[in-house]
Every structure is written in C-alpha cells, then in structure tokens.
Design brief:
mainly alpha, 5 helices, 0% strand
Length: 100
C-alpha cells in the first residue's frame, strides 16, 4: 500500500486528488504505529482504517456542501446582476459541476 501511495504522491495531479479525497486514509497507512498494528492486530487495524475512511467521507460531504453553496451564491449574484428571475437562461441541463 505504501508503494502505491508513494507512486501517487510522485504525480502532482494524483497527489492533489489523494490529499483532497483520502487524506486521513493516507495518513493512517503512513503511520508506523498503524503499520505495526497490521501485523499484530488485524481487527484493530481494520477498525481504525474504517474510522479514517469515514473521516474522509465526512470531509467529502462537507466539501460537496460548500461547493453547492458556492454555486447557489454565484447563481444568485448573476440573477441579481441581470435582473432575471428563476428559472432563467442560467438554468441549464448541464451536469451540476458545470452550472451555477
């Protein structure tokens, strides 16, 4: 696992995503205490790994909420600037990542 993490970290694009999406899991695997735990108490290792994964999931949900709020505020600012009322030309059938 460490070899895979090192490979990803060597690529700036992969490393950026890795640190954003899996920061807690990466830290967990890189921790020498956790590495030792894998060979001495696999159950505890897996339980703690699940906790790290959950922390990454919670962080992702928070990022998604912030992104949604940013899109909403951009859309409202554009509506205010143009005087348009929803629904408007600002509403589109594009995926949510590419619209206000």
């Amino acid at each position: 696992m460490l070899s895979l993490i090192n490979t990803f970290q060597a690529n700036s694009l992969y490393n950026s995503v890795l640190q954003t999406e899996m920061a807690n899991v990466v830290s967990y695997f890189q921790n020498t205490t956790n590495q030792a735990l894998l060979s001495t108490n696999c159950t505890a290792f897996m339980t703690n790994l699940k906790t790290a994964k959950l922390a990454d999931k919670v962080a992702a949900q928070a990022r998604d909420q912030i992104a949604s709020d940013i899109r909403r505020q951009f859309k409202q600012a554009a509506l205010n600037a143009t005087g348009l009322k929803p629904p408007s030309e600002l509403d589109s059938s594009e995926s949510k990542e590419h619209r206000f």
